[in-house]
Write a structure and sequence with these properties.
45% of the residues lie in helices and 13% in strands. The protein is elongated and about 115 Å long. By secondary structure, the protein is an alpha/beta fold. The protein has helices at 2-5, 11-39, 44-47, 51-55, 71-119, 148-157, 173-186, 198-206, 221-226, 229-245, 282-286, 322-337, 343-352, 377-383, 406-417, and strands at residues 162-168, 191-195, 211-213, 249-253, 257-259, 273-277, 288-293, 302-307, 311-318, 366-368, 374-376, 397-399. The chain has a domain at 144-278 and 311-417: Spore Coat Polysaccharide Biosynthesis Protein SpsA, Chain A. It binds 2-acetamido-2-deoxy-beta-D-glucopyranose.
Length: 433
């Protein structure tokens, strides 16, 4: 059979076949040599080394086969070599184990520390249906030395260690007035304006609005005075950090918001971040399975995706926990390094993207606020104002985030919900024109 195939084209094949037979024979020779060295360490090797052995390249086993050596010497060298190579194998194994331990230690170090901070001790799993993961992380130990002046102010302003905080400069003075007027009207005592310039500080003081102006010597404050938009949006997260470090929960609020009830009566307080949503119905606000269709894939044409409308980074409640502070740091850090990033996008990406190769996700716990109670202006103008039942319900807050004509819409909201003017919202289009 082989002979018939051995045409001109097959000759090379035949040669390589022969070649590999030789290699195979050599390998068998080496293995036999090893076996004999172990089985007959005293004598056999010296008398008749395997014939193929001589043609082999020198390996450690052939070192002793020189005809000049006495059989005793050869045997001694032989057993030394065996024991040395055994030690070598053992050492290599130990190095491998140590390297692996080191790698695991490096990998787990950070995570283990964080988990220890959060969990403290190990628990047994309870029976079926009774186990619950940790979503309410413990609060940090307050460090008053971070900012003693702010600490003193918060002692006076906060109620049960929580308060509303808004940042404002003189560009938003008109909205700020509508904002704090609505807060006063509801009777919320625990709120604070972080003034980014003197005009706002004076404006607040003359309106008996709790105000905090940062020490001008502090480094990040120069950002507020001279920085562009992006620097200022990063500033918000840096300032918030101090409140959390001092042990306070913050309800961060933009100033294009009207308060109609006390939000602190409507919080769950079980998550690191509890935020209003940009969503406008159950699906978009709370998450859904969005099926992506790719007909070319035939049987597997449907790919399931997880979707949720972004959290609104202009109104969220954040508890003073390690994951919360990590979130603020990560957002501030990214905003300082990516000048064109939008703070709300960064906020959501840090909050939602899971860990993956080369990236450690945040893994903070999250809760989406009721979108009818903490209402965005799309929900109000597209749905609620046209719905007989929904338009009778009083939200907790309304955020005019979807419309550029913020000031007139804010006034109309007050007119509708506070003054009872049923027509106040009618003149506005659903979206901007
Ligand atoms: C939205 O969800 C709430 C409960 O979360 C439910 O009561 C309501 O019926 C849902 N609405 C629709 C339109 O599915």
């Amino acid at each position: 059979m082989l002979g018939r195939r051995d045409g001109p084209l097959m000759r090379n094949n035949g040669q390589s076949l022969r070649g590999s037979r030789i290699v195979f024979a050599i390998a068998v020779g080496i293995l036999l040599g090893c076996a004999f060295a172990f089985l007959f360490p005293h004598g056999f090797f010296g008398s008749d080394p395997p014939a193929q052995g001589r043609r082999l390249p020198r390996t450690s086993l052939q070192v002793g086969s020189s005809p000049c050596e006495s059989p005793e010497r050869i045997n001694m060298l032989k057993s030394e070599l065996v024991s040395v190579s055994e030690k070598n194998v053992e050492l290599k194994k130990q190095v491998r184990e140590l390297t692996e331990k080191l790698r695991l230690a490096e990998q787990g170090k950070d995570q283990a520390q964080k988990q220890f901070l959060v969990l403290g001790e190990q628990h047994k799993a309870g029976p079926f249906g009774t186990v619950k993961g940790l979503r309410t992380n413990p609060t940090v130990v307050p460090g008053n030395s971070v900012n003693p002046r702010l600490a003193k102010m918060l002692e006076k302003v906060a109620v049960r260690k929580e308060l509303i905080v808004a940042l404002a400069n003189s560009n938003v003075k008109g909205m700020l007035e509508l904002w704090f007027t609505s807060i006063k009207k509801v009777g919320i005592p625990n709120y604070l304006v972080v003034a980014l310039d003197d005009e706002i500080e004076n404006f607040c003081n003359s309106n008996v609005v709790p105000v905090y102006k940062r020490d001008p010597d502090e480094g990040i404050d120069s950002i507020a005075r001279t920085g562009g938009n992006h620097a200022v949006s990063g500033l918000k997260f840096r300032i918030l950090r101090e409140f959390l470090q001092l042990g306070y929960s913050v309800l961060l609020s933009d100033v294009d918001i009207i308060y109609l009830q006390n939000p602190f009566d409507h919080l769950y307080r079980d998550s690191d971040v509890e935020s209003m949503t940009d969503g406008h119905n159950n699906m978009t606000a709370y998450g859904y399975n969005d099926v992506f269709d790719e007909p070319a894939m035939g049987w597997a044409r449907y790919a399931h995706t997880m979707r949720i409308w972004v959290y609104n980074s202009g109104f969220f409640y954040i508890r003073p926990t390690i994951p919360s502070i990590e979130l603020l740091d990560r957002v501030a850090d990214r905003l300082s390094r990516q000048p064109n990033a939008w703070d709300q996008a960064v906020f959501n990406e840090e909050l939602f993207f899971p860990s993956h190769p080369g990236y450690d996700g945040l893994h903070a716990s999250r809760r989406t606020m009721d979108f009818y109670l903490f209402m965005n202006s799309k929900v109000l103008f597209k749905t609620v104002r046209k719905d007989a039942k929904l338009s009778k319900l009083k939200p907790v807050i309304i955020h005019v985030n979807y419309h550029p004509d913020k000031f007139p819409r804010m006034k109309a909201i007050v007119d509708y919900y506070v003054n009872g003017n049923q027509d106040a919202l009618k003149s506005f289009p659903d979206g901007s024109e």
